[in-house]
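Standup notes
- DV: blocked on the single-chain target, sequence here:
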Amino acid sequence: MEAKEYALLEKLAPTHPELKSLWDDHILYEKQLEKLEGKSFLTPSEKQEVSRIKKQKLEGKTKLVDLLQSYAGREE
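- DV (later): unblocked, structure below
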């Protein structure tokens, strides 16, 4: 995400529950990935978990950016 999207997110998240939820999920996925990827060895199930989390994170970020762009268009 770009700086202007972060600024818009900070402005809108307190009053837009869907944006806040998507952002909170994004942060949670990032922390989960850091924990798993910090291991020196991943089991096959952990590798699957990393793939699943990355997919969820990407889907959520896509929704988040789409919502931010729609809100940005309303403010212009």
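- Follow-up: Residues 33 and 71 are 29 Å apart (CA to CA).
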